[in-house]
Amino acid sequence: MFKKILIANRGEIACRVMKTARRMGIATVAVYSEADKDSLHVLTADESVCIGPAASKESYLSIDKIIAACKQTGAEAVHPGYGFLSENQEFSKRLEENGIIFIGPKHYSVAAMGDKIESKKLAIEAKVNTIPGYNDSIADPAQAVEIAKGIGYPVMIKASAGGGGKGLRVAHNDAEAFEGFDSCRNEARNSFGDDRVFIEKFVEGPHHIEIQIIADSHGNTIYLLERECSIQRRHQKVIEEAPSPFIDDSVRKAMGEQAVALAKAVKYQSAGTVEFVVGSDKSFYFLEMNTRLQVEHPVTEFITGLDLVELMIRVAAGEKLPFTQADIKPKGWAIECRINAEDPFRGFLPSTGRLVKFQPPDASDGKVRVDTGVYEGGEISMHYDSMIAKLICHGDNRLQAIERMRDALNAFFIRGVSSNIPFQAALVQHPRFVSGIFTTAFITDEYPNGFVAADVPYEDIGLLAAVAAFARRRYIDRAVQISNQMIGHPRKVGTEWVVVIEGKNYQVGVNTIPGGYSITCGDKKYDIVSNWLFRELVFRGTCNGQPICMQVERAGLEYRIGHFGKQIKAVVMSLKADRLLAKMPVKVPPDLSRFLLSPMPGLLREVSVQVGQQVRVGEKLAVIEAMKMENILKAEKDCLVKKIVTEAGESLSVDQVIIEFE
User: Fold this and answer.
1) Residue tagged active-site, from 12, 226, 275, 288
2) Is 288 a catalytic site residue?
3) Within 13 A of 84's CA, how many CA atoms are on the CB side?
4) Is residue 489 domain-resident?
5) How many structural domains are present in the chain?
């Protein structure tokens, strides 16, 4: 077995690999860019080596620097994680040439499956079901349009070297095909250094289901069941689960056997994933094979009891798999939510900055797992992807796993950057998700105009008002206790208050009961018992005898409360203060409609208009790159360009002016 391995990655996955390596008694080496010098994966490793500046091309994508780090530290093997060089055949081959073991498949397998065009041809030869399409590289947008029309809309435009939703667009007409081709090619070039693009038919109403396989060097290839990955936004997975609520045993077996056949056809070794699109009639078609560990591998680990990272290391060391296909049976249900640094209420724009507060839910019971590469006080950088953490919950059945996920999301506290936790909380409560009857179009169908606060289901606002009143009353009771000692006589505390939430007043009555307060709001009564302290960010207790868990944070006169994705700001005041507040003037916000403002921090890749140009609604104005994704800003109304304030190549901050209009 290896004595020391280097992890050629960063963040969450680097920390994840180190955790298993440490348990196996293997020393670890971290590599890091200058932007990551204080990152958790650097602090976690036994050794660390700086390999360059923030830009991935000059650090994490530099094969020479990673090989040099191996030689400098004496690392015998390299685990690539996912992304970056994990599916780069040259990287695997160069390591082998330098006597360093690649903890992954052989370079010829990476080459065969890493190219989506060639992999589809190989799948056909291996008698794996495939989707109709044009399987050669496309030269330009005009050719893309002609091919798309020939196949028939809708089509998927895909980067040959793509993955993780990058370099992928769905086009429903000529205009979308033309624009999507350029965006795919640019994203592919920037993320993978390979701008080849191809097109295939988009299967409407599909499920995205993938088969996890593991293969050793002794001829054993086993499929470790499937993962349901149909909950996606912009072709990036949001929620994954195992097993799938859609397919049955016969389909599972057929998909698993085809995945194994494909792996054997390319002499595959290590962990890998064969992705399929599955129609409503349960017919399935090969999409691609990912020759690496997947982001969502923890759900497979939960239901199989296996450590995929350990298996990868042992296979790379030449060991034989210690089980057979007959040994693989699902144990319960697991669900994973990706917690990303993005604002779901602002079109999921990336959010960067310092993690002022980072408090994951308790994972000590073994039923909740949090994989992360960040810590409180650390930075979320604009240079890399937006993932903060992965939250995984296990249950005896699907409903139990969903309930655990809801509770865990309630207890996941993040401040300093925005996160998609409210969106995830809304998804796991949605009736269609709970039913298990959904497709990859779920998010598009249910949130066609984006995600807004009204999309978060919440039936009992009175409960939030009651908790706000609880927090305020506890604060006042403490203040009274202190002041009574100072002035020598008791201060009277009123019982009738007003809680203002989203512009609406809720009159509440608050009376003391053992361990808490009895609060009336309208015709409802909430007997809340809790030992909650002001310094605690998560409020736990009971309401009318039932357990509750929500986030409560005092900010000046306001209480910020989060529960099941619902986020509100509550002001608690006396009846007199409420009457006086109604007489206060309202500050009118400034008119910013004459400006195109940067909605996120990022790199301005392109300004698409000129001074004096008449712009029509929907026209492209600029392109911003942030967290490895291209974001196209379009005109929201007809306007005339007065001034270009910033130039392509500049780094932008949030709300920085890009263009001024007449």
Assistant:
1) 288
2) yes
3) 30
4) yes
5) 6
